Structures are given as C-alpha cells and as structure tokens.
Amino acid sequence: MERIRIRGGRPLCGAVRVHGGKNAVLPILTATAAIRGRFILHNCPAIRDVEITQELLAAQGVTCVRTGDTLRVDSTGLRPGPIDHRLAGRLRSSVLFLGALLTAFGAAEIPLPGGCVLGARPLDLHRSGLESLGVETACESSGLIARGRPRSGTVILRYPSVGATENLLLAALGAAGSVRILGAAREPEIDDLCAFLTACGAELTGVGTACLTLTPRPQHGAEHRILPDRMEAATYLCAAACAGGALTLTGLIPAQLAPVTQALQAAGCTIEDGADSITIHGTARRAIPPVRTGPYPDFPTDAQAPLTAALLRAEGSTVLEETVFENRFRHLPALEKMGARIEGGGTLIRIRGVPSLHGAAVDATDLRGGAAMVCAALGADGETLISHAGLLDRGYQDLIPILRSLGADAEADEPKRTTP
Ligand code: EPZ
Q: Is 301's C-beta closer than 6 angstroms to any atom of ligand 1?
C-alpha cells in the first residue's frame, strides 16, 4: 500500500489474532542458510521483510514455499551465491547472513546493510564478537567479510545487541567447540531462535539469560512455530488506547507485553490478561510516570512511538526517554502536525496532553513511526492521509483490513501507476 486514509473518531471493537513475530522469523529464516535440511515454519507473517529474506535465501539455493502461514524451507541445495546488494541494503537483518554463511561455507561476504533512519546502527559488536573467536573480519567497499572457522571460546558483549547475539549464535553453529556469549540479548525473539536451533540439533544452555552457550552438534531440519509478534500486539493496544472501544488480542504471550500494558493501565485503560490474550477497554486519559526504553525486559524501543501516540491526549505531561536508538523520534513532527504538543528532542521528550487532535497529511518516517501516525489518526477528528505507507507492509500483515474489521474508517490507496 502506498497511502493510508483514516477518518478518526471511531472506537475499535472486536478480536484480532496476532501474527508470528517479524523479529523472530527473520533470524530463524536466515538460520536455514547455515543448516542443510528441510524445515517447516508455522505462524510466519506474510510481510515484506520475510519476502525479502526469502529472495536473499533463494540466491543461496534455499527454496521457500508458503501455504497460508506455514513456510516450507528446503536448504538441501545450499550453495554459495551472490547476495543482492539492493535487497540486502533494505533489510537490517540481512547482516545475519554473515554468521549463517560463515557456518555454511567457512567464509562470507555481505553488503553493508543500508543506512538506517533510526541511527548509525554500527556492526562493531558483530565484528568484535566474531574476532574474539578467531574469525577474521574486514569492512571493504564491497561489504563486510568474515573468514575462518570460529574456535571454541567466550564472547563478551558490552551491550546486549539483539543482532550481534543472533549473528554469533549462527556463527557458533560452525564453531570448533562450545561458544559462550556473556552479555547476550534476552529478548523473547532470542529465546525463539534458541528453541529453533535446539530443534535443529544444536545444544544450548542459558536460554533466557544473558549467558548463552551453544555447542555445535550434527544439525538437521526441524519444524517450529514462530513466536507471536509482541510489537504488532503493542501497536494494536496503543491503537485501541487512541481510539477507545474494546479490543481483544489473541494468540500472544501477555507477560511479554507487561511494560506496555502497565503503561496503558497507568494511563487509565482497563487491561485484562488471559492465558494467551489481552483485552483493552477505553482510552489513555492521564499522563504516566517517566518511561525509559531499554533492552528486554525494559520498555521496548519498538513500542515507544505507538505509546507516544497513545499519550497525546492524556491529561498532564509524560516524559519519555529513548536509550536504544539515537534517532527514534522522527515521527514527532507528523504528530505535532496533528495537534500534538511535544517538547524536547534528541533522546528525551515531554508529551503534554491536548484535548483533541485533528487530521493532517503526513509522511511515514519508518515502520514504528508510521504505526504511531496510524494510532494517532484513529483518535483524531477528521481525516488523516499517511503517505509512504508501504513502510508499514514491512512489519504489519493486513493492517488496514484488520483495522476496518474492528470498525475503523480506514482505507489503503494503492500507488497510482502513471502510464509512461
Ligand atoms: C533488533 O535490531 C530489531 N530488529 C529492532 O526492531 C529492535 O528495535 C532492536 O533489535 C532492539 O530491540 C530485528 O530484530 C530485525 P541491536 P538490531 O543490535 O539487532 C547498537 C523494528 O522496528 N549497536 O540490539 O539492529 C545499535 O546502534 C526493528 O522491528 C552497536 O552499537 O538492534 C543500537 O543503538 C527496529 N553496535 C543498539 O545497539 C553493534 O554492533 C541496539 O541495537 C550492534 C548494535
């Protein structure tokens, strides 16, 4: 979709089943380039980032066939192939092909992931981690290179980088012995990758902790169900907190949403946790104590923009600090164009609640910033037009049909193809 048109003021009512997690499926799908076998992956979201990863895998001889939300992946024909620079440049997680192809072929070269609007997003932790295992890495004009079989040993991550943890796990599959990662990321998506790698034959200990150890064993194909997308769930919760109504999300793990549901409860929403569901009633009406994003289990950076949108009409003021990415407030000008009052910038903002928001023409800045604009538009008076909405296709499956099924007055304009 290229443009979204939303007329606000309608509550969201009904139930939505959360899809499989974008940030869970991407490393797991990439891991199939490290292990020759046949895999069945259930609960795979049909989103653009998964499609791009499938295209990158195809160049390595790995085939993917989708039936509904199940992907059948065959990497028995795995062979070294070129990585499409244009495709890889559009996907930050393409960096995980470094660890996967190092395991598969003993050497790997990947294009540097494209510039990221969220910040510099360096790869120093990926490289230093590999180098501490004896892997030679180099950054050349053609891209990032890694050569040599990792030796057994310990990597210490000075920051619990999700991507670096994932890359090191994929490289450890081909190591000469056990690899221990101290300071590993603890996001649920890391646990899901570890569960998948265990199903493929690897031996993992310390899952769920900051001290992960992977011991390579003969690896093979596996069947796995992808973890639910906690960020998709957070986005819908914040949309409901903007629009009001009564929304039930199913197929998720409520405990993983605790920082988000606690914030929305503090803002005046009613939240009920079920075994695999969350129900939210009412809008966010009051400001909340300061929120600071951070690595799991702190408040997730990917929910920061949607929560900001939810608090725009909350009485009082809320301070929000972004500690994970240095440029993650790019959506604020669009929200201000809709009548929001937000002070500060850099990594610290103060949201001052306003009585109402109004529709406007805005441009999606990035995946979660665009989602914040959708949330704000649902609670605004009048019509909002969001351009560059194709960014949302990267991480949200069927966003507009789902919002419409919940009663939102929303539609997606496909880009008008100008005839040459
Ligand atoms: C993953 O990105 C997610 N992406 C991001 O979600 C998420 O925001 C992020 O983790 C944090 O939770 C996927 O899983 C595909 P990091 P990743 O490495 O792995 C710095 C979304 O919207 N850093 O934990 O790139 C980095 O600059 C996306 O779904 C280094 O300094 O995140 C950043 O400031 C956005 N050196 C911080 O660490 C490195 O070598 C967190 O990055 C690597 C990272």
A: yes
Please report how the helices 22-31 and 97-105 are oriented relative to each other, as an axis angle in degrees rounded to 10.
20
Give the position of tokens 């619990």: 160
DSSP 3-state of 17: strand
What whole-number distance in Å separates Cα of residue 287 and Cα of residue 289? 7
Q: Give the per-residue pLDDT at 115.
A: 55
pLDDT band (50, 70, 90) for residue 292: very high
In angstroms, the CA 133 to CA 392 distance is 38
| Token reading at 289 | 């104590």
Task: Examine residue 113 and say whether the peptide bond preceding it is cis (omega within 30 degrees of 0).
Answer: no
- Looking at ligand 1, which residue's alpha carbon is closest to its atom 27? 121
**Within 267-359, where are the H helices?**
304-310, 332-337
Which residues fall within 8 angstroms of residue 2, CB to CB, at 6 or more apart? 387, 388, 389, 390, 412, 413, 414, 415
**Residue 165, pLDDT above cutoff 50:** yes
User: Which tokens sit at 317?
Assistant: 């003021």
Q: Would you place residue 416 in the very low, low, confident or very high pLDDT band (cuts 50, 70, 90)? A: low
Ligand 1: does its nearest atom lie under 6 Å from the Cβ of 229? no
- Distance between alpha carbon 354 and the CA centroid of its chain, in Å? 30
pLDDT band at 20, cuts 50/70/90? very high
- Catalytically active residues, by annotation: 116
Residue 127 beta carbon below 6 angstroms from any ligand 1 atom = no
Closest CA to 217 of 161, 181, 175: 175
> Of all atoms in ligand 1, which is nearest to the CA of residue 93?
15
- Is residue 51 over pLDDT 80? yes
Q: Which residues partner with 80 through β-bridges? A: none
Check pLDDT > 80 for residue 380: yes
Only one residue has tokens 């199939």, namely 32
Query: pLDDT > 70: what percent of the chain?
Result: 97
186, 210 in Cβ contact below 8 A? yes
Note the helical H segments in 132-276. 162-172, 188-199, 230-243, 258-266
Alpha carbon 245 to chain centroid, angstroms: 26
* Amino acid occupying residue 331: H
φ, ψ of residue 148 to 5 degrees: the values are 105, 150
What is the 8-class DSSP label of residue 231?
H
Distance between CA atoms of residues 225 and 52, nearest Å: 20
